[in-house]
């Protein structure tokens, strides 16, 4: 189909969000065109989730060899070969790239157009000299690193997630500005590869997570030799050949931290440049493209999904948004976003996973009826056997057992949180979890144990004991 005809759907951006919509729409028979200015797969595949998790996996394995968790297993010292680590990162990207490739999408019936899209009307865009018209347009243009305004900081002199995975040596000292998920994951990965690491965070690290579990992360990272400076006020940055000086305010006067590299991980900004959104009547604010709960913009024929909307920025959210838009555009259903059971995981080791409300959020909504229970990993047989007892589960619920949220700090917390996602989505109570039979010995048992503990005061209380006493007098059955 040529540009003169009108498509059913034009998707702008072939990252996690845009690819999911385009694949679904084409397979449902919508005439779909997908426009991509850069690399197919966007941030997640090329400069985000995939390379960061591959780097973390290599660093974790090296750490386990150098610092075995188990008595009787001797440590094994060796030099990090950064070239080999980078090869693993690139091989991981290459292994996953076919799934996001032009060839696969063309095979699904999507027309893929390479180039930067700009609106020229409410239903039309121009890309590389071609005009594309469509009944519906989905903007999935993603985000890129935000640069903080710090005197002396030159964006060309610092690393971001877009350049970090191309570094060919292990940094002597990496100064990480920002203690969000990127900052924390990359701080640990680089420390485990052998770098000195300092994290500078404006408030406290991982501010969206439960404080007790964040404290566990903080202690683990410090024990590995990472310097974490919270409430940091960065006064200035100075770049000299191969050396970067970061001046921070301190109670006893300014302090200078010297690094061989600086990684900036201070959040994201949407990719809106050159889109000419005003020509399509699409409103934006500081966070991104403004959408309603159905992900529709101020132009009723234009939806926006994924990172560019300024909502939660995760690949699973991009996929969730895509599903909502498909239901709206292909099936004309009034689908809406609901983040009540939205999980996220920071892939440090141990992992920090969360779903639903934190205790503070639950108290703001439900008052003192919202309560929490913390169960440490140290009482779990599998954790003891593995030598991995640092961690805990914190659940948040109402007195009737309705589950509001859960956070887990454990080696496989990202896998373990799935049970709680299901429980919250299905509006289950903690009682439902107590009746599960889970395999022994697994880390997942902590979920059932925590649910059981919630009911312990009632189960083993005076009323129950009285009931058992009465029942004891009944004849056998
Ligand atoms: C280091 C790092 C690690 C991460 N780890 C995780 C993780 O473990 N788990 C997780 O869930 N999330 C993670 N994320 C977040 C995740 O990568 C993003 O939420 C996700 O990639 C967003 O997808 P998207 O499709 O909205 O945007 P993008 O992937 O940014 O895709 C947008 C695409 O649109 C294209 N584009 C932009 N403007 C135009 C235009 N005008 N015309 C044509 N094309 C255009 C861009 O070239 C890009 O390819 C991580 C992010 C980073 C940076
Ligand atoms: N595991 C995951 O799911 C994962 C991993 C990495 C990234 N991501 C996503 O990528 C996005 C970007 O991650 P991020 O960590 O860059 O962003 P973020 O916004 O989550 O964290 C950035 C942190 O930097 C701090 N900060 C900002 N300016 C600062 C300054 N001048 N000095 C010191 N600290 C400063 C902020 O207080 C904030 O806590 C996030 O939205 C996240 O959802 C997800």
From TrEMBL:
<dbReference type="InterPro" id="IPR001100">
    <property type="entry name" value="Pyr_nuc-diS_OxRdtase"/>
</dbReference>
<keyword id="KW-0560">Oxidoreductase</keyword>
<dbReference type="InterPro" id="IPR016156">
    <property type="entry name" value="FAD/NAD-linked_Rdtase_dimer_sf"/>
</dbReference>
<dbReference type="GO" id="GO:0016668">
    <property type="term" value="F:oxidoreductase activity, acting on a sulfur group of donors, NAD(P) as acceptor"/>
</dbReference>
<feature type="binding site">
    <location>
        <position position="267"/>
    </location>
    <ligand>
        <name>NAD(+)</name>
    </ligand>
</feature>
<keyword id="KW-1015">Disulfide bond</keyword>
<feature type="disulfide bond" description="Redox-active">
    <location>
        <begin position="44"/>
        <end position="49"/>
    </location>
</feature>
<comment type="similarity">
    <text>Belongs to the class-I pyridine nucleotide-disulfide oxidoreductase family.</text>
</comment>
<feature type="binding site">
    <location>
        <position position="53"/>
    </location>
    <ligand>
        <name>FAD</name>
    </ligand>
</feature>
<keyword id="KW-0521">NADP</keyword>
<dbReference type="InterPro" id="IPR004099">
    <property type="entry name" value="Pyr_nucl-diS_OxRdtase_dimer"/>
</dbReference>
<keyword id="KW-0285">Flavoprotein</keyword>
<dbReference type="GO" id="GO:0003955">
    <property type="term" value="F:NAD(P)H dehydrogenase (quinone) activity"/>
</dbReference>
<feature type="binding site">
    <location>
        <begin position="178"/>
        <end position="185"/>
    </location>
    <ligand>
        <name>NAD(+)</name>
    </ligand>
</feature>
<keyword id="KW-0274">FAD</keyword>
<dbReference type="Pfam" id="PF07992">
    <property type="entry name" value="Pyr_redox_2"/>
</dbReference>
<dbReference type="Pfam" id="PF02852">
    <property type="entry name" value="Pyr_redox_dim"/>
</dbReference>
<dbReference type="GO" id="GO:0050660">
    <property type="term" value="F:flavin adenine dinucleotide binding"/>
</dbReference>
<keyword id="KW-0520">NAD</keyword>
<feature type="domain" description="Pyridine nucleotide-disulphide oxidoreductase dimerisation">
    <location>
        <begin position="343"/>
        <end position="450"/>
    </location>
</feature>
<keyword id="KW-0676">Redox-active center</keyword>
<keyword id="KW-0547">Nucleotide-binding</keyword>
<feature type="domain" description="FAD/NAD(P)-binding">
    <location>
        <begin position="7"/>
        <end position="321"/>
    </location>
</feature>
<protein>
    <submittedName>
        <fullName>Dihydrolipoamide dehydrogenase</fullName>
    </submittedName>
</protein>
<dbReference type="InterPro" id="IPR023753">
    <property type="entry name" value="FAD/NAD-binding_dom"/>
</dbReference>
<feature type="binding site">
    <location>
        <position position="307"/>
    </location>
    <ligand>
        <name>FAD</name>
    </ligand>
</feature>
<dbReference type="InterPro" id="IPR012999">
    <property type="entry name" value="Pyr_OxRdtase_I_AS"/>
</dbReference>
<dbReference type="InterPro" id="IPR036188">
    <property type="entry name" value="FAD/NAD-bd_sf"/>
</dbReference>
